[in-house]
Design goal:
The protein has 240 residues and is mainly alpha-helical. The protein has one domain. The protein contains 9 helices and no strands.
Length: 240
């Protein structure tokens, strides 16, 4: 796979995960999106304000992807690609199996407490402001909401083993969630509740499929695209 195909596959995968899972985002972030302080804005300003909010979410996702992409790159530098794929895939499969038993492993209690204690008060203050800049900050903070779909995106991003590809993946992932989230903020009744619930229910299965693909990728079965041969050689830092 050449570089162009690699980048294209990242963009397609990230958009697909983001868009298909965006109805799950509606369930998680919908109340905040509906409560955005944009009703006083008219015409294009309202449109721009909602776009700014969603851009803030995508920016946070990209920044997290940047940080975790660096970690993923260390695995690749030391020839631990298989280990990384197997570990990430295994964690996603465990999360999928737990979801069948209605156990919310994808939402860590520690992260939820951090969200409730530190992020929600900041969001409450920003909600009272009527500035466009406040919408950007609200979006960036909303990107920190503990969410299984975001964890799925991050697992796929880290598995790229490349800092800028991981960043690209999460930025495009954020863009993929924008249509549904924009519709909720602009006209909340545009998304049918029945379809929203169906898409939300499908998210655990997407997590399971992604986990299985990552495990297969780490098994080195030499199957093109699905389980390519991964080299385990360490990168030499200097010539002997």
């Amino acid at each position: 796979m050449n570089e162009f195909q690699s980048i294209l596959s990242i963009i397609v995968a990230a958009l697909s995960i983001g868009f298909m899972g965006s109805f799950h985002c509606v369930g998680m972030c919908g109340p905040l999106a509906l409560a955005l302080p944009v009703q006083h804005l008219q015409g294009g300003f309202k449109f721009f304000g909602i776009v700014l909010y969603n851009f803030g979410r995508a920016l946070t996702y990209a920044l997290i992807g940047l940080c975790l992409g660096w970690i993923g790159m260390q695995f690749f530098l030391f020839g631990w690609q298989q280990v990384l794929s197997l570990v990430l895939g295994g964690l996603l499969l465990i999360a999928f199996l737990a979801s069948l038993n209605k156990k919310r492993l994808l939402q860590n209690n520690g992260l939820q407490r951090f969200w409730n204690k530190f992020i929600l008060p900041l969001l409450s203050k920003l909600m009272k402001q009527r500035k466009l800049s406040a919408l950007l900050w609200m979006g960036m903070l909303n990107g920190l909401l503990p969410c299984g779909l975001v964890y799925l995106g991050l697992a796929a991003a880290v598995a790229t083993g490349n800092v800028w590809k991981s960043t690209l993946f999460m930025a495009v992932f954020g863009l993929g969630t924008m249509p549904a989230m924009f519709a909720v903020s602009y006209a909340g009744n545009m998304i049918n509740l029945k379809w929203r619930n169906k898409m939300k229910a499908a998210v655990p299965y997407v997590v399971g499929i992604m986990g299985l693909l990552l495990v297969l990728r780490g098994m080195n079965l030499n199957i093109p695209y699905l389980s390519p041969q991964l080299g385990n050689e360490q990168v030499e830092c200097c010539h002997k």
